[in-house]
Amino acid sequence: MQNGKVIGVKSEGEIARCKKLTCDPSYSIICDRVEKNTSNASSCQIIIPHNQVNQKSDIYVCMISSAHNVAAQGKYIAVASTTVETKEPEKEIRAALEPLEPTEQKFISISDFLVPKDLGTESQIFITPTCDATTHFEMTCDDIKDIYKRMMGSEFDFEEMKQKKNDMYGED
Known about the structure:
This protein has 172 residues and is an alpha+beta fold. It has two domains: 8-25 and 116-155, no CATH class; 29-106, Guanine Nucleotide Dissociation Inhibitor, domain 2 (2-Layer Sandwich), CATH 3.30.519. The protein is built from four helices and nine strands; from the N terminus they run βββββββααββαα. It has helices at 89-92, 94-97, 138-152, 158-169; strands at residues 8-11, 14-17, 21-23, 29-31, 44-48, 59-65, 76-81, 105-106, 125-127. Strands 5-6-7-4-8 form a five-stranded antiparallel β-sheet. Strands 1-2 form a two-stranded antiparallel sheet. A hairpin with a 2-residue loop joins strand 1 (8-11) and strand 2 (14-17). 11% of the residues are buried. Keywords: Cytoplasm, Golgi apparatus, GTPase activation. One of its GO terms (cellular component) is Golgi apparatus. This is Rab GDP dissociation inhibitor. GO terms for molecular function: GTPase activator activity; Rab GDP-dissociation inhibitor activity. It comes from Eschrichtius robustus.
């Protein structure tokens, strides 16, 4: 920070300079195979409906692999998430974890849902709310549109982008 504004991010002694910073306010499971009913897909999304697990919230599982450059060859990363409803949150996602067993490593993390304290216009640090439990990114898309408006001072014009694409590539 310099004069109340972001100038960069320091990590392991190195600084990446920036004029604006976009970030999540917070900051999984490693397997050697994909979930058994997915035909060995390189990635998958599984939604376990809340009524199948006697909960108020669905459970979401996102599995990704080395095909996405996020895991070593032959390894998969699975993220299981839901909204915590009891004092035993790991039991709440058991229906998602059991089909993934055996796992090589498991990281359990419980996070509060956080929201930014200000719009970020003065500091130029634009913070999103914490990601919610869903894996279909609907709320994330809304967050992106919101943060764009806060950063740029106006809403993103999708129609203008469609026109520019048409002008460049001659496509409708």
